[in-house]
Amino acid sequence: MLFNSATFIFFLIVVFIIYWTVAPQKQTLKNTILLISSYVFYGWWDWRFLILIAFSSGSDFVIGRVMYQTKIKSRQKLLLLLSLFLNLGILFVFKYFNFFIDSFLALTGNAETVGWNSLNIILPVGISFYTFQTLSYTLDIYLGKLKPTTNALTFFTFVSFFPQLVAGPIERAKNLIPQFEKQSNFSYGKAASGLKLMLWGFFKKMVIADQLASWVNLVYGQPENYSGVIILITTFAFGYQIYCDFSGYSDIAIGTARLFGIDLMINFQNPYLATSFRNFWQRWHISLSTWFRDYVFIPLGGSRVNKINWTRNILITFIISGLWHGANITFVLWGIIHSLLYITEKIFLNRIILQPKIKNIGGWFLTFTFVNLCWLFFRAENATQLHFIFNKIAAFEPFVFDDFISMFLSNKVLTGTGRMLVFAFPFFLIVDFLSYLFPFESLLQQSPRIVRWTFYYLILFMILFFGVFESAPEFIYFQF
To answer: Is 325 a catalytic residue?
Structure first.
């Protein structure tokens, strides 16, 4: 069930009405409604996926309780290893089994001899997200940061809460579980702010991301038909596609949760205005970045080690982050390059003494440029296409502006994208910049009513006029 579908809107309205009218003073019944709704939402893709999420939820609920009750550290460690084995084992089979077998056979030169055929395994939607969410629960109990819940209903609802189930934010139990345990009361202000945030999320997804998808898919689908410069520009377009697609999902998820009185963590904070790579990773997919920081980087020693070990820790963390995104060598390369950029900045660039304004502007330019260039590794379908695209770019054919414009004018697929780039995209950039300078929601609330409603109606108009409604692409992070 896609957020940008009539089915979801109808589903949301029905769940919202039932949640607030059937049992306004009974939180247990409310959580039951949310759990059933979440399973319906997730099972809409394939009901078989429900078996996996129910198994992960049930096993970690039991493991968490037993781990907390036993005071013997060795037993706690065995239980933690069991949780890691079960969760990461399921993730490995469904997401990485074919990749590692194919890679091993290719390295040993036995692929043709063995005659291996990849298994036809369906990747469950959002498996990486809910696996990391439930894993953080057992890890926090083991680390002594969390007391387990004794309510199975609460825990199952925490794991499967439908607004953020398939693409985050990856919530922590200490933030979300207490909200399901306490009595929730309807707040008009919170619900209204949720609807407004959802509207902005739909704008980013349906207008910016989905229109850019037409351009990006066209060029990357047939890179041999386009010059290296156009492919390069298209890669920057993909940078905004994935940003608006993923942050749009997060905005819709956070806004939807507010309709039920639940606060989710902010997942994006203007990442393309970051002035360093470190700052970028503090602003991009914050829930995942902090997950890797707390459960991979810090346990490895974090920054409290010498430079060699710190470099190792950064490299390992980014490689695992790349693998988390997908079972493809291109994602591994993406992670390695980001780690090298991060390390280079830390060791060398931060030593350069410049005026703060110059340093910030220069840092922003370098960060923005290299982050978007790295999307080449992320968007390429495989290593073969990546190699071909690099050769095209290295050929450095002269950029012809007329050819670039004619690409939009001559292709019916891109006519809507062209109009969006002229009208809606500049509007998005202005709003994104303003939200970097000011707390944007509070700024709007302090503005006169005519300003606020003009802004909301303008967004709604652009969604209706520029939005992609037919054959709309799925959210990019569903594949992860």
So the answer is: yes
